[in-house]
TrEMBL record:
<feature type="domain" description="Aspartate/ornithine carbamoyltransferase carbamoyl-P binding">
    <location>
        <begin position="6"/>
        <end position="144"/>
    </location>
</feature>
<protein>
    <recommendedName>
        <fullName>Aspartate carbamoyltransferase</fullName>
        <ecNumber>2.1.3.2</ecNumber>
    </recommendedName>
</protein>
<dbReference type="InterPro" id="IPR002082">
    <property type="entry name" value="Asp_carbamoyltransf"/>
</dbReference>
<comment type="subunit">
    <text>Heterododecamer (2C3:3R2) of six catalytic PyrB chains organized as two trimers (C3), and six regulatory PyrI chains organized as three dimers (R2).</text>
</comment>
<feature type="binding site">
    <location>
        <position position="80"/>
    </location>
    <ligand>
        <name>L-aspartate</name>
    </ligand>
</feature>
<comment type="similarity">
    <text>Belongs to the aspartate/ornithine carbamoyltransferase superfamily. ATCase family.</text>
</comment>
<feature type="binding site">
    <location>
        <position position="102"/>
    </location>
    <ligand>
        <name>carbamoyl phosphate</name>
    </ligand>
</feature>
<feature type="binding site">
    <location>
        <position position="53"/>
    </location>
    <ligand>
        <name>carbamoyl phosphate</name>
    </ligand>
</feature>
<dbReference type="Pfam" id="PF00185">
    <property type="entry name" value="OTCace"/>
</dbReference>
<feature type="binding site">
    <location>
        <position position="135"/>
    </location>
    <ligand>
        <name>carbamoyl phosphate</name>
    </ligand>
</feature>
<dbReference type="InterPro" id="IPR006130">
    <property type="entry name" value="Asp/Orn_carbamoylTrfase"/>
</dbReference>
<dbReference type="GO" id="GO:0004070">
    <property type="term" value="F:aspartate carbamoyltransferase activity"/>
</dbReference>
<feature type="binding site">
    <location>
        <position position="260"/>
    </location>
    <ligand>
        <name>carbamoyl phosphate</name>
    </ligand>
</feature>
<feature type="binding site">
    <location>
        <position position="132"/>
    </location>
    <ligand>
        <name>carbamoyl phosphate</name>
    </ligand>
</feature>
<feature type="binding site">
    <location>
        <position position="261"/>
    </location>
    <ligand>
        <name>carbamoyl phosphate</name>
    </ligand>
</feature>
<feature type="binding site">
    <location>
        <position position="217"/>
    </location>
    <ligand>
        <name>L-aspartate</name>
    </ligand>
</feature>
<dbReference type="InterPro" id="IPR006131">
    <property type="entry name" value="Asp_carbamoyltransf_Asp/Orn-bd"/>
</dbReference>
Amino acid sequence: MTIKNNFLNINSLSNDEIKNLILLAHEFRNGKQVKLNQPIYSANLFFENSTRTHTSFEMAQRKLGLQSFDINPQTSSMQKGESLSDTVKTLQAIGMNCLIIRHKATGWYKELLADPNIKLSLINAGDGSGQHPSQSLLDLVTIDDEFKKFSGLKIGIIGDLSHSRVARSDAEILKHLGAQIYFSGPKEWYPKDFNNFGEYVNFDEIIEKLDVVMMLRVQLERLNQELVSSFTPNNYFKHYGLTESRAAEMKKDAIIMHPAPVNRDVEIASSLVESPHSRIFRQMQNGVFARMAILATILKNQGLLEEYKCKS
Ligand code: CP
């Protein structure tokens, strides 16, 4: 699959496509402007809560000059039983060129891709515990900012691995790009297939070797009631969190990342969220430029955007 019409899984893109997206995001951050060849209409359809992804896609749409619509599933006719597929076809009939969708169903887009009547562009803003490809792109942009390479970097992804689409899509793409991936967190939350991307390690034994310490949010909303009742934030923080004493072991040039929202003093000490090592708010800034790059690439491939040139 290429990025021609849709952006659904960053791990299906070629290295050149990823490199171009990263370069383009950097160019947008440096003030690059593009011109649309015709009016473009884009709708955001979020079935799960979001602040960063939703707002930064909307910011990216506005910065590129797209007309953006916010469709609230709670007030849409999906509440009367209309399917996702019919909703997508309805929005297409009304004139949308592009839909950005977050949905709790892993692989929500597969059925839509198989429908020959759906021709508008689909962008995955997170599918269940599958992928979060625009987050992965902004994470790549943030790591590239810092190290100008991926190959050979030691990256730790720490925390609630079993529920994290960020962990899955980041680990897969970073391994593909040559990074060495280490996982830690509660062993019972470690999916065995993550062995395909890296190895499970003791956080305290690996932290001094890491270039990137990527902490994950504990996704209480995805835990079953029994686990929620037995979850104790202080205990989690002590055993798996990025405490000040663990952070003191980090390399001088290592960075802290977190996709956010952050549970302060659960996954990471509150004092570290805005510390010199942290790139957490930088990730959010880069999210706008990464999403501009995704939208612009799709529009360019469809001939809807004036030519742009990536600096190499
Ligand atoms: N990181 C991320 O996806 O944040 P939101 O859930 O706020 O979009």
